[in-house]
Amino acid sequence: MKTVKFITLGCKTNFYESAAMAELLRNAGYDIIESKLADIYIINTCTVTNSGAAKSRAAIKRCKQKNPKSIVAVTGCYAQMESEKVSQIDGVDIVSGVERGNIVDLIMEASLGKGGGRRTHACGSLTEDCLEPQSSVSYADSSFQKGALTTPTEYEELTAVDTQSRVRAVVKIQDGCDNYCSYCVIPYARGHARSRKLENIISEAYEIANRGYSEIVLTGINLSSYGKDLTRNIGFIDVIEKLHEINGISRIRLGSLSPTIITEDFVSRAERSYKLCPQFHLSLQSGSDKVLENMNRKYDTAQYFNAVKLLKENIPNAAITTDLIVGFPGETDAQFEESYEFCKKIGFSQMHIFKYSKRAGTVAAEMKDQIPKTEKERRSLKMLELARNMKEDFYQNYIGKIVEVLFETEKAGKFHGLTANYMDVLAKSAENLEGKIKKVKITGMTGENLVGEVD
């Protein structure tokens, strides 16, 4: 039996896709392992930033060093965007991009040595026959410097049930993006927005429920666009309502959303779905309207604030989490302070802070007034301090209250879990709490975790 090790970089969607490939390989008789030495390595790459691409290249090289006789397959967004460059890295046998359904066939062909073992998803060996015309970057369309792999146009149906955590299961329901933010290459790597058929989502969810998972996490590249490409008149909220009907699923957690999806209709229907976790990750990126315009985002701060207001006024215990970029090209001191004050006004429970990183080939990489590294560091530290303070303020409101916690892991006699609104909780117990939802009385806070006693 051949052994396979996955190395996954990037987002939840990438991790789901690795799990789906693992399921295909396991069903074909391969052994999925965690140890360092394997017969086959599959590196599922990220290309959001230049550093993500560099990490992908480093991972590729390390695998061949561990086992020179191994087969190395490179998939994911970096492989899709720079397939020719990846194929030239010493030791790479397979380059398959963002569609993974034929990974078993590609590995079998590489094992047999057909075509020299160096393959692509689209058409086999890397020859000039499969190269697409070169094109330049544009806001408006999906043109980009393309290599040998074609951009997918249909949703690729894969499932991932057997190879995920036994506590929560990620379910991918959407792929691609049509937003073309000025700093992002993902629409060029992933292609246009594509939605998974609702019946296939529900079928996978029933299987997840039958296998004892407590929580479903919905993921995709642009969840808020779900349904726009389907002939039936359905949207993202319809998916939530259908999942809510499934017995055995206790929680439905959402991935990152655009604030534009938060309408009165969405909120009124979400309010009736009591299994829906009241944690809403609304991507902000900047609290300055001018910076948002330069980023080519599709909302302004007024729309964002109204979305948060709708959620907090109608969804009990709603937690708002977000992503923020500091040091975007042209961001002045005044615009950064504007962003800082807007974040303080919102009162996020958690924030992910990113220092702007140039991504070659994007519009933003060519913008004037790039911010010096030292200034980006200063702004990042200031925003991180605000994020810590807001998180502590949010957590402190729950001391003395009873909350429900889904416990996941145990370390040194303490179990760690998450509330429905995404707060970290530690509790001691003689009982094994892994995978169980328990009521916990919150007694205090240590570090960035709440601590409590199982009720």
Describe the structure in your own words.
The radius of gyration is 23 Å and the shape is globular. Strands 2-1-3-4-5-6 form a six-stranded parallel sheet, with helices on both faces. Strands 15-16-17-19-18 form a five-stranded mixed β-barrel. It has helices at 12-27, 50-66, 77-81, 83-87, 103-112, 186-190, 198-210, 236-244, 264-272, 289-295, 301-314, 333-346, 373-396, and strands at residues 3-8, 31-32, 40-45, 71-76, 94-97, 119-120, 168-172, 174-175, 194-195, 215-219, 251-254, 279-281, 319-326, 350-355, 402-411, 414-419, 424-428, 437-446, 449-454. It folds into three domains: 3-130, Methylthiotransferase, N-terminal domain (Rossmann fold, 3-Layer(aba) Sandwich); 168-396, pyruvate-formate lyase- activating enzyme; 402-454, OB fold (Dihydrolipoamide Acetyltransferase, E2P). It is built from 13 helices and 19 strands. It has 455 residues and is of the alpha/beta class. Mean pLDDT is 89; it is low at 114-147. The N and C termini lie far apart (47 Å).
Summarize the helices and strands and which ones pair or pack.
Elements: E1 3-8, H1 12-27, E2 31-32, E3 40-45, H2 50-66, E4 71-76, H3 77-81, H4 83-87, E5 94-97, H5 103-112, E6 119-120, E7 168-172, E8 174-175, H6 186-190, E9 194-195, H7 198-210, E10 215-219, H8 236-244, E11 251-254, H9 264-272, E12 279-281, H10 289-295, H11 301-314, E13 319-326, H12 333-346, E14 350-355, H13 373-396, E15 402-411, E16 414-419, E17 424-428, E18 437-446, E19 449-454
Parallel strand pairs: 1-2, 1-3, 3-4, 4-5, 5-6, 7-10, 10-11, 12-13, 13-14, 17-19
Antiparallel strand pairs: 8-9, 15-16, 15-18, 16-17, 18-19
Helix pairs in contact: 12-13
